[in-house]
Amino acid sequence: MHIPDGYLSPQTAIPMIAVMVPVMGVAVKQVEKTVRKKEVPLLACAAAFSFIIMMFNLPLPGGSSAHAVGAVLMAILLGPWAACLGVSVALIIQALLFGDGGILAIGANCFNIAFLMPVAGYAVYRLIKGNADLLSFRGMTAAAVAAYIGLNVAALATAVMFGSQYHLFQAADGTPLYFMYPLKVTLAVMMSEHLLLAGPAEAIITVLGVWFVGRNYPELLERPGQVIPAVREVNGHV
Amino acid sequence: MFKKYRNLWIALGVLILLCPLGLLATGTAFGEWGMDELSERVGYIPAGVQQFAEVWSYALLPDYSIPGLADTFFHAAGGYIFSALLGTGLVAGIMILLGRRVKE
Fold first, then answer.
1. What is the pTM of this model?
2. Domain A10-237 maps to which CATH number in 3.30.1300.10, 1.10.1760.20, 2.40.110.10, 3.30.70.2740?
3. ipTM value greater than 0.90
Protein backbone atom coordinates (compact mmCIF):
# COMPACT_ATOMS: atom_id res chain seq x y z
CA MET A 1 0.00 0.00 0.00
CA HIS A 2 3.07 2.29 0.10
CA ILE A 3 2.85 4.20 -3.19
CA PRO A 4 6.36 4.62 -4.64
CA ASP A 5 7.50 7.77 -6.45
CA GLY A 6 6.66 7.91 -10.14
CA TYR A 7 3.31 6.13 -9.96
CA LEU A 8 1.39 9.28 -9.01
CA SER A 9 1.42 12.45 -11.09
CA PRO A 10 2.82 15.53 -9.30
CA GLN A 11 -0.69 16.98 -9.79
CA THR A 12 -1.93 14.25 -7.44
CA ALA A 13 1.04 13.90 -5.09
CA ILE A 14 1.71 17.57 -4.32
CA PRO A 15 -1.86 18.50 -3.29
CA MET A 16 -1.86 15.48 -0.97
CA ILE A 17 1.24 16.86 0.75
CA ALA A 18 -0.52 20.23 1.01
CA VAL A 19 -3.50 18.49 2.63
CA MET A 20 -1.40 16.52 5.10
CA VAL A 21 0.62 19.49 6.46
CA PRO A 22 -2.33 21.10 8.28
CA VAL A 23 -3.68 17.66 9.22
CA MET A 24 -0.38 16.90 10.96
CA GLY A 25 -0.57 20.26 12.71
CA VAL A 26 -4.00 19.38 14.06
CA ALA A 27 -2.74 15.92 15.04
CA VAL A 28 0.13 17.37 17.10
CA LYS A 29 -2.25 19.82 18.83
CA GLN A 30 -4.80 17.08 19.55
CA VAL A 31 -2.14 14.74 20.92
CA GLU A 32 -0.93 17.52 23.24
CA LYS A 33 -4.47 17.90 24.52
CA THR A 34 -5.75 14.34 24.72
CA VAL A 35 -2.78 12.11 25.48
CA ARG A 36 -1.64 11.93 29.11
CA LYS A 37 1.98 11.93 30.28
CA LYS A 38 1.78 8.32 31.48
CA GLU A 39 0.62 7.26 28.03
CA VAL A 40 3.71 8.58 26.22
CA PRO A 41 5.51 5.19 26.41
CA LEU A 42 2.44 3.61 24.79
CA LEU A 43 2.42 6.38 22.18
CA ALA A 44 6.05 5.55 21.31
CA CYS A 45 5.55 1.80 21.44
CA ALA A 46 2.36 1.77 19.35
CA ALA A 47 4.01 3.86 16.62
CA ALA A 48 7.06 1.58 16.65
CA PHE A 49 4.67 -1.40 16.52
CA SER A 50 3.08 0.07 13.40
CA PHE A 51 6.54 0.37 11.83
CA ILE A 52 7.48 -3.22 12.56
CA ILE A 53 4.13 -4.85 11.75
CA MET A 54 4.41 -3.37 8.25
CA MET A 55 7.62 -5.41 7.83
CA PHE A 56 5.68 -8.66 8.30
CA ASN A 57 4.80 -9.25 4.65
CA LEU A 58 2.15 -11.86 4.04
CA PRO A 59 2.42 -13.93 0.87
CA LEU A 60 -0.49 -13.67 -1.55
CA PRO A 61 -1.41 -16.07 -4.34
CA GLY A 62 -0.08 -14.81 -7.65
CA GLY A 63 3.27 -13.76 -6.19
CA SER A 64 2.17 -10.56 -4.50
CA SER A 65 2.28 -9.60 -0.82
CA ALA A 66 0.49 -7.38 1.68
CA HIS A 67 0.75 -6.48 5.35
CA ALA A 68 -1.15 -5.14 8.35
CA VAL A 69 -0.61 -1.57 9.56
CA GLY A 70 -1.57 -1.24 13.23
CA ALA A 71 -3.21 2.16 12.73
CA VAL A 72 -6.64 1.17 14.10
CA LEU A 73 -5.02 -0.44 17.16
CA MET A 74 -3.25 2.84 17.88
CA ALA A 75 -6.49 4.77 17.35
CA ILE A 76 -8.35 2.54 19.82
CA LEU A 77 -5.60 2.80 22.43
CA LEU A 78 -4.76 6.49 22.11
CA GLY A 79 -7.30 8.15 19.83
CA PRO A 80 -7.35 8.73 16.05
CA TRP A 81 -5.08 11.80 16.14
CA ALA A 82 -2.35 9.97 18.02
CA ALA A 83 -2.62 7.20 15.41
CA CYS A 84 -2.43 9.77 12.61
CA LEU A 85 0.75 11.23 14.09
CA GLY A 86 2.38 7.92 15.02
CA VAL A 87 1.71 6.13 11.74
CA SER A 88 2.81 9.21 9.76
CA VAL A 89 6.13 9.21 11.61
CA ALA A 90 6.52 5.50 10.80
CA LEU A 91 5.71 6.11 7.11
CA ILE A 92 8.13 9.05 6.86
CA ILE A 93 10.99 7.01 8.35
CA GLN A 94 10.14 4.12 6.01
CA ALA A 95 10.27 6.42 2.99
CA LEU A 96 13.41 8.36 3.93
CA LEU A 97 15.59 5.57 5.24
CA PHE A 98 14.30 2.41 3.62
CA GLY A 99 12.90 3.60 0.29
CA ASP A 100 9.52 2.06 1.22
CA GLY A 101 6.97 4.48 -0.26
CA GLY A 102 7.91 7.58 -2.21
CA ILE A 103 8.96 11.01 -1.00
CA LEU A 104 6.70 12.88 -3.42
CA ALA A 105 4.03 10.30 -2.56
CA ILE A 106 4.45 10.76 1.21
CA GLY A 107 1.40 12.99 1.47
CA ALA A 108 -0.77 10.46 -0.38
CA ASN A 109 0.54 7.57 1.72
CA CYS A 110 0.05 9.44 5.01
CA PHE A 111 -3.45 10.48 3.91
CA ASN A 112 -4.50 6.91 3.07
CA ILE A 113 -2.70 4.92 5.75
CA ALA A 114 -2.22 7.37 8.63
CA PHE A 115 -5.34 9.54 8.28
CA LEU A 116 -8.21 7.74 6.52
CA MET A 117 -7.47 4.37 8.11
CA PRO A 118 -7.40 5.32 11.80
CA VAL A 119 -10.22 7.88 11.46
CA ALA A 120 -12.52 5.44 9.63
CA GLY A 121 -11.52 2.58 11.92
CA TYR A 122 -12.09 4.66 15.05
CA ALA A 123 -15.54 5.76 13.87
CA VAL A 124 -16.57 2.14 13.27
CA TYR A 125 -15.11 1.12 16.62
CA ARG A 126 -17.06 3.76 18.54
CA LEU A 127 -20.23 2.96 16.64
CA ILE A 128 -20.13 -0.78 17.37
CA LYS A 129 -18.67 -0.61 20.87
CA GLY A 130 -21.29 1.80 22.18
CA ASN A 131 -21.05 1.83 25.95
CA ALA A 132 -19.66 -1.70 26.19
CA ASP A 133 -16.26 -2.32 27.81
CA LEU A 134 -13.31 -2.48 25.46
CA LEU A 135 -12.33 -5.91 26.76
CA SER A 136 -15.87 -7.31 26.56
CA PHE A 137 -16.91 -9.50 23.64
CA ARG A 138 -18.67 -6.56 22.06
CA GLY A 139 -15.67 -4.28 22.58
CA MET A 140 -13.29 -6.79 21.01
CA THR A 141 -15.69 -7.42 18.13
CA ALA A 142 -15.81 -3.66 17.58
CA ALA A 143 -12.00 -3.56 17.50
CA ALA A 144 -11.80 -6.42 14.99
CA VAL A 145 -14.44 -5.04 12.62
CA ALA A 146 -12.98 -1.53 12.89
CA ALA A 147 -9.50 -2.81 12.00
CA TYR A 148 -10.86 -4.77 9.03
CA ILE A 149 -12.82 -1.81 7.67
CA GLY A 150 -10.09 0.73 8.43
CA LEU A 151 -7.47 -1.18 6.47
CA ASN A 152 -9.83 -1.69 3.54
CA VAL A 153 -10.74 2.01 3.44
CA ALA A 154 -7.01 2.73 3.11
CA ALA A 155 -6.66 0.07 0.40
CA LEU A 156 -9.66 1.50 -1.46
CA ALA A 157 -8.23 5.02 -1.39
CA THR A 158 -4.85 3.73 -2.58
CA ALA A 159 -6.50 1.78 -5.41
CA VAL A 160 -8.43 4.88 -6.49
CA MET A 161 -5.26 6.99 -6.47
CA PHE A 162 -3.41 4.39 -8.53
CA GLY A 163 -6.19 3.71 -11.01
CA SER A 164 -7.23 7.33 -11.53
CA GLN A 165 -3.77 8.11 -12.91
CA TYR A 166 -4.39 5.79 -15.85
CA HIS A 167 -7.57 7.60 -16.81
CA LEU A 168 -6.36 11.15 -16.13
CA PHE A 169 -2.79 11.27 -17.40
CA GLN A 170 -1.78 9.94 -20.79
CA ALA A 171 1.06 10.84 -23.11
CA ALA A 172 0.36 12.24 -26.59
CA ASP A 173 0.58 8.71 -28.02
CA GLY A 174 -2.10 7.46 -25.62
CA THR A 175 0.21 5.46 -23.32
CA PRO A 176 -0.20 6.06 -19.58
CA LEU A 177 2.20 8.61 -18.09
CA TYR A 178 2.12 7.34 -14.52
CA PHE A 179 0.29 4.34 -13.06
CA MET A 180 -0.37 1.95 -15.93
CA TYR A 181 -3.43 -0.06 -14.86
CA PRO A 182 -7.04 1.20 -15.02
CA LEU A 183 -9.31 1.57 -12.00
CA LYS A 184 -11.09 -1.74 -12.56
CA VAL A 185 -7.76 -3.55 -12.23
CA THR A 186 -6.45 -1.60 -9.24
CA LEU A 187 -9.78 -1.97 -7.43
CA ALA A 188 -10.09 -5.69 -8.18
CA VAL A 189 -6.53 -6.52 -7.12
CA MET A 190 -6.12 -4.21 -4.13
CA MET A 191 -9.56 -4.94 -2.70
CA SER A 192 -9.40 -8.71 -3.10
CA GLU A 193 -5.97 -8.76 -1.41
CA HIS A 194 -7.04 -6.60 1.49
CA LEU A 195 -10.58 -7.93 1.92
CA LEU A 196 -9.40 -11.54 1.93
CA LEU A 197 -5.99 -11.51 3.62
CA ALA A 198 -4.61 -8.24 4.97
CA GLY A 199 -7.95 -7.19 6.50
CA PRO A 200 -8.33 -10.33 8.63
CA ALA A 201 -4.63 -10.01 9.59
CA GLU A 202 -5.28 -6.42 10.69
CA ALA A 203 -8.27 -7.57 12.77
CA ILE A 204 -6.18 -10.26 14.48
CA ILE A 205 -3.22 -8.03 15.39
CA THR A 206 -5.62 -5.34 16.63
CA VAL A 207 -7.48 -7.72 18.94
CA LEU A 208 -4.20 -9.21 20.19
CA GLY A 209 -2.75 -5.73 20.75
CA VAL A 210 -5.76 -4.52 22.74
CA TRP A 211 -5.72 -7.76 24.72
CA PHE A 212 -1.98 -7.47 25.43
CA VAL A 213 -2.17 -3.89 26.67
CA GLY A 214 -5.35 -4.61 28.66
CA ARG A 215 -3.80 -7.64 30.33
CA ASN A 216 -0.49 -5.99 31.21
CA TYR A 217 -1.41 -2.36 31.75
CA PRO A 218 -5.18 -2.07 32.26
CA GLU A 219 -4.72 1.50 33.49
CA LEU A 220 -3.60 2.48 29.96
CA LEU A 221 -6.98 1.48 28.54
CA GLU A 222 -8.87 3.87 30.80
CA ARG A 223 -9.27 6.72 28.38
CA PRO A 224 -11.68 9.47 29.30
CA GLY A 225 -15.12 8.28 28.27
CA GLN A 226 -14.16 4.63 28.16
CA VAL A 227 -13.58 3.61 31.75
CA ILE A 228 -13.48 -0.16 31.96
CA PRO A 229 -14.59 -1.73 35.24
CA ALA A 230 -14.35 -5.18 33.64
CA VAL A 231 -10.57 -5.16 33.51
CA ARG A 232 -10.13 -6.73 36.91
CA GLU A 233 -12.51 -9.58 36.09
CA VAL A 234 -10.85 -10.28 32.76
CA ASN A 235 -7.46 -10.37 34.44
CA GLY A 236 -8.83 -12.76 37.01
CA HIS A 237 -9.77 -15.21 34.29
CA VAL A 238 -6.55 -15.34 32.30
CA MET B 1 9.35 4.97 30.62
CA PHE B 2 11.14 1.67 30.06
CA LYS B 3 10.96 0.00 33.45
CA LYS B 4 7.30 0.55 34.25
CA TYR B 5 6.15 -0.55 30.81
CA ARG B 6 8.75 -3.27 30.39
CA ASN B 7 6.37 -5.76 28.80
CA LEU B 8 5.51 -3.37 25.96
CA TRP B 9 9.18 -3.02 25.05
CA ILE B 10 9.82 -6.76 25.43
CA ALA B 11 6.96 -7.48 23.02
CA LEU B 12 8.45 -5.00 20.55
CA GLY B 13 11.85 -6.69 20.93
CA VAL B 14 10.34 -10.11 20.22
CA LEU B 15 8.71 -8.75 17.06
CA ILE B 16 12.03 -7.27 15.94
CA LEU B 17 13.70 -10.69 16.32
CA LEU B 18 10.83 -12.41 14.48
CA CYS B 19 10.58 -9.89 11.66
CA PRO B 20 12.65 -11.94 9.13
CA LEU B 21 9.48 -14.06 8.86
CA GLY B 22 8.24 -11.17 6.74
CA LEU B 23 10.98 -11.96 4.23
CA LEU B 24 9.39 -15.32 3.44
CA ALA B 25 6.79 -13.49 1.36
CA THR B 26 9.08 -12.67 -1.52
CA GLY B 27 6.47 -11.14 -3.83
CA THR B 28 6.30 -7.38 -4.31
CA ALA B 29 3.04 -5.74 -3.23
CA PHE B 30 0.71 -4.54 -6.01
CA GLY B 31 1.87 -1.16 -7.25
CA GLU B 32 5.21 -1.23 -5.43
CA TRP B 33 7.27 -2.74 -8.26
CA GLY B 34 10.77 -1.46 -8.90
CA MET B 35 11.73 -0.38 -12.41
CA ASP B 36 13.10 -3.82 -13.39
CA GLU B 37 9.95 -5.58 -12.29
CA LEU B 38 7.83 -2.97 -14.00
CA SER B 39 9.43 -3.39 -17.41
CA GLU B 40 9.09 -7.16 -17.01
CA ARG B 41 5.38 -6.84 -16.16
CA VAL B 42 4.22 -4.29 -18.70
CA GLY B 43 7.09 -4.22 -21.19
CA TYR B 44 7.87 -0.50 -20.89
CA ILE B 45 8.34 2.26 -18.34
CA PRO B 46 5.84 5.12 -18.64
CA ALA B 47 7.49 8.49 -19.23
CA GLY B 48 6.22 10.05 -15.98
CA VAL B 49 7.31 7.05 -13.95
CA GLN B 50 10.76 7.30 -15.53
CA GLN B 51 10.90 10.97 -14.62
CA PHE B 52 9.92 10.76 -10.94
CA ALA B 53 10.74 7.24 -9.76
CA GLU B 54 14.23 8.13 -8.62
CA VAL B 55 13.69 11.55 -7.02
CA TRP B 56 14.83 10.15 -3.69
CA SER B 57 18.00 8.08 -3.92
CA TYR B 58 19.28 8.64 -0.39
CA ALA B 59 17.63 5.69 1.35
CA LEU B 60 20.48 4.31 3.47
CA LEU B 61 18.96 0.85 3.78
CA PRO B 62 16.91 0.31 0.62
CA ASP B 63 14.23 -2.38 1.04
CA TYR B 64 15.34 -2.86 4.67
CA SER B 65 18.63 -4.41 3.58
CA ILE B 66 22.26 -3.50 4.07
CA PRO B 67 23.68 -2.68 0.61
CA GLY B 68 26.57 -4.90 -0.46
CA LEU B 69 25.70 -7.79 1.83
CA ALA B 70 25.74 -11.29 0.31
CA ASP B 71 22.48 -12.47 -1.20
CA THR B 72 21.55 -15.22 1.27
CA PHE B 73 18.54 -15.52 3.56
CA PHE B 74 20.72 -15.13 6.66
CA HIS B 75 22.35 -11.93 5.42
CA ALA B 76 18.95 -10.60 4.40
CA ALA B 77 17.56 -11.55 7.82
CA GLY B 78 20.43 -9.74 9.54
CA GLY B 79 19.86 -6.62 7.46
CA TYR B 80 16.12 -6.85 8.11
CA ILE B 81 16.59 -7.09 11.90
CA PHE B 82 19.09 -4.22 11.85
CA SER B 83 16.61 -2.14 9.82
CA ALA B 84 13.84 -3.02 12.27
CA LEU B 85 15.99 -1.99 15.25
CA LEU B 86 16.95 1.29 13.66
CA GLY B 87 13.45 2.04 12.37
CA THR B 88 11.55 1.22 15.58
CA GLY B 89 14.20 3.08 17.61
CA LEU B 90 13.85 6.20 15.48
CA VAL B 91 10.05 6.08 15.44
CA ALA B 92 9.84 5.52 19.22
CA GLY B 93 12.44 8.25 19.83
CA ILE B 94 10.58 10.79 17.71
CA MET B 95 7.30 9.95 19.46
CA ILE B 96 8.94 10.36 22.89
CA LEU B 97 10.26 13.76 21.79
CA LEU B 98 6.80 14.74 20.52
CA GLY B 99 5.38 13.38 23.78
CA ARG B 100 7.33 15.99 25.72
CA ARG B 101 4.77 18.50 24.45
CA VAL B 102 2.06 16.61 26.34
CA LYS B 103 1.02 18.73 29.29
CA GLU B 104 -0.35 16.44 31.98
1. 0.94
2. 1.10.1760.20
3. yes
